[in-house]
Amino acid sequence: MCAHSRLFFKIAHSIVRNAAEAEDACQAALTKAWECRDSIRDAASLKGWLVRAITNEALQVVRHQQTAQRLLQRKAWQAEPSAPVHEVIESREIVGKALDRLPEQTRAIVVLRAMQGLSGNEVAALLGCSASEVSRRFHEGMGRLREMLTEQPVSKEGTGYGV
What we know:
Rna Polymerase Sigma Factor, Chain: A; Arc Repressor Mutant, subunit A; mainly alpha; single chain
């Protein structure tokens, strides 16, 4: 096992790009291997199984980082609007009215994907449709929103609300 520890660490580190998190991913994968040691029949395939488990753990770390980054960006955007509050409220009302003009299924997909930050697969599971249908309706809905919002009249300050 020790002979492969450098390989395991290198694999995890190449994915997460952080030594501490690579060590954590290796430790989590090795802990899982220990917990299910009775179900591993062939010792020769153990190395391959561990490489896959470490890769999966490292990818999970990256996914968690990306989710945390999206949450931080969303909170920063909500906490510090660059425009005065009345302009933010006005633009949200305009977007809300444009969303109301979309078909119900398309509106749900756009809201879940763009405003709630869910993945296409998560939306597909929630709405009971395929991921390709979610993707198609999302792009169609965003295109229609873009068209509707660029049609909005220019405000007094001279700024439009295009997407």
